[in-house]
Amino acid sequence: MKLHLVVLFPLVTISCFGQYFHRRANAPAETVSFMKDLYIKPSEPVLRRSAAFKKAIKVPLLLTVASFYTMTDNENFSRAEVKEERDEWIPYFHHKADNYLQFAPIAVVYGLNLAGVKGKHDLRNRTALLFKSELLVAAITFPLKKITAVPRPDNGMRNSFPSGHTAQAFAAATFMSKEYGHLSIWYSVSAYAMATGVGAMRIMNNRHWVTDVMAGAAVGILSTNLVYLTHRYKAGGKQNRPQTLVMPSYNGQVGMVTFVRTLS
């Protein structure tokens, strides 16, 4: 009896699998397509969103890793070594150009638009994208300054990490690149050159460590990339439905919540 059961079980199993594959081969096209889409691969929109998200965080992630690397006591590239080189070669350097250069890409974008050079988006969407990018930069930068409490290299105030000027500059540079980079690569090159100049000047002015500057660049690029990735575009000057935006921020002393309500 046990021998019969042992022989019978494989035969029944083979028979069931044979019937399954026979039905699968003769199933309607709609059923096969459904099973293929459901179990084999995700939909194209999901793949596109995933690829876009990976692209948006790639550079900020690399900058963040580099920033943390400079915090370590290594012989290749550390914040202490950069500070020593700065103190040796330009100990008395001081210039305020970075206070204004951080906003230069934004001025260029609206200046080009006024000159008749059309960007990627209309005035309404462009301004909304910029506004949300600025809010996100502030929402990330100021709490991090408070939480990390890194002393500045010049006066010891514990609000050095990350660099707010650099975050602003790279958010603006990414904004300019998004709006005009498709017309010519030189728009992107010039935008990021200005932002890099701001970061360099923050170190030269002895206001920030190189660690702070790299982290600030990561925050700025990431903020604008995420805003562009998630923005709901509106055309024709009309909105389909009311929208609400709530954004917390902190300036090191006062907490604030910004509430924006757009009506149709």
TrEMBL record:
InterPro entries the UniProt entry points to: PAP2/HPO, PAP2/HPO_sf
Keyword Membrane applies: yes
Keyword Lipoprotein part of the UniProt annotation: no
CDD domains tied to this protein: PAP2_like_5
Ranges that cross the membrane: 100-117, 185-203, 209-229
Record keywords: Membrane, Transmembrane, Transmembrane helix
Domain Phosphatidic acid phosphatase type 2/haloperoxidase: 129-228
PROSITE patterns xref list: PROKAR_LIPOPROTEIN
Protein name stated in the entry: Phosphatase PAP2 family protein
Protein's organism: Chryseosolibacter histidini
